[in-house]
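Schema walk-through. Below, the input block comes first and the output block second. Nothing else is stored per chain. Lengths vary across the set, and this one has 132 residues.
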Amino acid sequence: MESDDIIKSMNYYHANTSTVVQNTDFRHVVYTAKNIQVVFMSVLAGEEIGEEVHDEHDQTFVFVAGEGKVIIGTEKIPVHPGDLIVIPRGVYHNVKSIGPLDLKLYSFCTPPHHPRGTVHPTKESAIGAQEH
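--- output ---
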């Protein structure tokens, strides 16, 4: 996923929303540091990430394209490009793509959750990786 609008260095990471929109991988870890990880995600239209809970880290979602909803307990929160949702550790949540287009987002995991450089092209490949 290297391109001119991504600059990587030992000290920082830079990207813009068009880079996130161009991502077609379900999950793509693009940057990992000691205390934070940046993950690009693409959730196919009509699909979801699946209910999950993280006991070891907080997660922040920033939505850049598509339409979706975040389910937290019994709440269903509509999300649109420009929205941000923070999920504290220990909170069950799910993200669903509800529009005609894929839902594009990036997330911050603090501290990092996935192995550095993880790429799951599809949701199925992500589920398969969790089973091993």
